[in-house]
TrEMBL record:
This is Cytochrome P450, E-class, group I,Cytochrome P450,Cytochrome P450, conserved site. The keyword Transcription does not apply. It is a peripheral membrane protein. The chain crosses the membrane at residues 6-29. PANTHER family: CYTOCHROME P450, CYTOCHROME P450 28A5-RELATED. Keywords: Endoplasmic reticulum, Heme, Iron, Membrane, Metal-binding, Microsome, Monooxygenase, Oxidoreductase, Transmembrane, Transmembrane helix. May be involved in the metabolism of insect hormones and in the breakdown of synthetic insecticides. GO terms for cellular component: endoplasmic reticulum membrane. GO terms for molecular function: heme binding; iron ion binding; monooxygenase activity; oxidoreductase activity, acting on paired donors, with incorporation or reduction of molecular oxygen. It is found in: Endoplasmic reticulum membrane; Microsome membrane. InterPro entries: Cyt_P450, Cyt_P450_CS, Cyt_P450_E_grp-I, Cyt_P450_sf, Insect_CytP450_Detox. Belongs to the cytochrome P450 family.
Amino acid sequence: MIPCILFNWLLDSIVLSSIAVITLIYYFATSTYKQLKKLNVPHTPPVPLFGNVLKMVAGLESKTDTYGRIYRQHPDAKICGFYEMRTPFLMIRDPEIIQAIMIKDFNYFINRGLQFDPSINLLARSLFFANGQKWKIMKQKLNPGFTSVKLKGMLHNIKACSDRLVKFIEDNINNTTGIEVSKITGNFSTDVIGTCAFGLELDTINNDSEFRKNIKKIFGLNTKSFCILLLGTIFPNVVKYFKLHVIPLEATNYFHSVFNELIEHRTTNDVVRNDIAQELIKAKRELVLDSTGIEKFTDSDIISNAIFILTGGSEPVAATLAFCFYELALNRDIQNKIREEITSTNEKFGGQFTNELCMNLPYTDMVLNETHRKYSVVVNVIRETTQTYKVPGMDSFIIEKGQKIVIPMSSIHHDPKYYPNPKTFDPERFTKEEISKRPNGTFFPFGEGPRHCIGKRFAEWELKLVLSIVLTKFEIFPCPKTEIPLKFNKTSPVLVQAKNGIWLNFKPIVA
């Protein structure tokens, strides 16, 4: 009798304990899910714990598709909402409000709101993640590295890297399977930023350097990193306590060592170059060694920004260039037209690939803009309100301090309301006449306002110069391995990437 009573007591205890645990878990998983309802913004009911991004987390849907789906679910809303795991976000769909947030009322949205612990993620100290006054100070220190004068001085380095790219294509042109252009554009862009920004001759095009391998580690995402990233979204304090690194520690340690040696070498030997590394050395002297300001900077802040400039200056350019080659291969009429413009303009400037050439290629600009539109390699712009904000044109709608918002760049770039037949590659969308038909706030591949990409002009000149050199040497064709349409990597954490690479053929142009 007693064993039976004891068994029933244990069973009841287990059942009650299980119910209590399940109730607590459910409460934790759904405790934030009333916030969007309180704001009275349209949103789809969230899944406990995963919010509205379950398919993305499960690897069944890319980041582009997930945010595109949310964007399309509320076609008449200026602002809609969604939950990324447990965190409520406002998605800004209206171009006028987007312009206000990124430009007119920027001071309300100066912070990105991306929370990473600098002690376990060195890049958290970089310009991209920095907030408030610290961001303003560092941007001011780095801006001189991207002036027009500095860019003009870098053109000969970009040309030298482009010539090495041409030589590599010539040496591999008879490969029957074609050339995987994502790889060679990545190697090219790494060489360019290495030599232009830091005076490093890497020759990654011919030798897959340690620089390139570690850049891919930073922008890649293995199972371990994905789990840590997911855990950090739900339990940030756990990630911080156990010092779990999303970015492989060996990659950040490698770059920390390289750039520390570079800065020490230049400082000790009084080496002065007209590049971005020199601006970082100057920033170190003013912000770390001689600082009397309220904001405290360390050597790690300087190294973090060096890594940010290297990685941020190579991967987006590489992806955009590869996608551009792909579209030119599939659209021969566009390829011929851009080549004719480059050739005729080059003749006007004496056959020299100069900054004057880059500034006089309107159709090339249109092709690149259409590449940026169709392949928005960065999916969203993220901001966080720093003070209570009354949204213009929405009566009394208030965004509270600390609210995270998303500006869906890729979704807007593919909205047929602004870009009819958005899957079609059509540079004519970017004639002056067509641009004037669209409202501001519908095209911003480099961001907009004070917090736009610091390397925007550098990237534009680099892309135009390498296109000019490659297209005067080669015609580009699809090959048997060319994927039509492209499949995209669903688990890419940062940039849009082709899942199986981009394979093309190149044919020399005979004069």
